[in-house]
Design brief:
The protein is α/β, with parallel strands linked by helices. Helix content is 33%, strand content 19%. It has a single domain, classed as Carbamate kinase. It is built from 9 helices and 12 strands. Strands 3-6-2-1-9-11-12-10 form an 8-stranded mixed beta sheet, with helices on both faces. The protein has a two-stranded antiparallel ribbon with strand order 4-5. A two-stranded antiparallel ribbon has the order 7-8. A hairpin with a 3-residue loop joins strand 7 and strand 8. Bound molecules: adenosine-5'-triphosphate and magnesium ion (MG). The site of adenosine-5'-triphosphate (ATP) has 29 residues, from helix 1 and helix 8.
Length: 277
């Protein structure tokens, strides 16, 4: 039986497409164009969806405004609205770069249908996302502040959206591009002795791999949040790789099935998804 074609969802980390270390929102336009060109080199139809993080457009502004801690004042509600608009502005630039490279990228604001409960995603309407993908459009979702039924507002992270989108679009591989080459035994930006883990599974995660948050401001848990968001979704035909996409060519190789970074898997299969023909 011929292998089904590989379907991939890619997250472009906010740590890569923006300058996350600065305290003002700034896009790395050259890096973004290069990543868009790398996405466009994948065989047609392989990249079925894209997610991006907020980087300096989200984490710093959210932390300064405190909207994830309650939105009872007018000032906080205005900040919530302003921060949503900022994400839309970043997303428009990302989608333009993708279109310019030849991918039919469509902005899809997830907070238009998402409901969070106590900080966790409880509902996301994916009907239009699936219909778009069926028409070979590339839906692009992104980290946003969203309605939370108990807290008022919570941050819906790109890391939570990525496995959701991968499942919705029937992807077998999720590539989470960031600024470090996978999951390490400790933060490689702080600990020169940190070692990269080849594979993370729910078993090995419990058994002691306990990565930290982020060396930058990150209100959604940095690397720890990323792995935690993934583990519940993997297995049964979906694997993920966390990899460094600041290195030119890394995303291209991963899109061809290259085993870069750390494989995060449900544990049922070893070795990860392979490219179909
Ligand atoms: N054990 C670890 N292994 C790898 N990275 C780690 C670890 N612990 C902490 N980190 C940090 O995680 C960071 C990557 O996560 P971060 O959330 O900052 O990026 P991102 O998800 O690409 O950005 P965004 O959330 O804006 O999309 C690294 O820069 C590193 O400092
Ligand atoms: Mg993050």
């Amino acid at each position: 039986m011929p292998r089904p074609p590989l379907r991939v969802v890619v997250k472009l980390g906010g740590s890569v497409i923006t300058d996350k270390r600065g305290d003002r929102p700034r896009i790395r336009r050259k890096v973004l164009s290069r990543l868009a060109a790398e996405l466009a080199t994948a065989p047609r139809g392989r990249v079925v969806g894209v997610v991006h993080g907020a980087g300096s457009f989200g984490h710093g502004p959210v932390q300064r405004a405190g909207i994830h801690k309650g939105v009872r004042t007018v000032a906080r509600r205005l900040a919530w609205a302003e921060i949503q608009v900022l994400q839309n502005e970043l997303d428009a630039v990302v989608c333009r770069a993708l279109i310019q490279a030849g991918l039919p990228a469509v902005p899809c604001q997830p907070s238009a249908t998402a409901i969070m409960e106590g900080g966790r995603l409880a509902h996301l309407d994916d009907a239009a996302l699936r219909q778009l993908a069926a028409r070979r459009m590339v839906p692009v979702v992104y980290g946003v502040p969203a309605v939370d039924s108990s807290r008022g507002c919570a941050i819906l992270s790109g890391d939570v959206l990525a496995p959701e989108l991968a499942r919705s679009l029937g992807a077998s591989l999720l590539l989470l591009g960031t600024d470090v080459d996978g999951v390490f035994t400790s933060d490689p930006r702080r600990d020169p002795a940190a070692r990269r883990l080849e594979v993370v599974t729910p078993g090995t995660w419990r058994d002691g791999a306990a990565p930290g948050g982020s060396a930058s401001t990150d209100v959604t848990g940095g690397m720890r949040g990323k792995v935690a968001a993934l583990l519940g979704h993997l297995g049964e035909g979906l694997d993920a790789r966390i990899l460094d996409i600041t290195r030119p060519g890394a995303l291209t190789r991963a899109l061809r099935g290259g085993r870069l970074g750390t494989l995060v898997t449900g544990g049922a299969r070893r070795g990860g998804a392979r490219p179909g023909r």
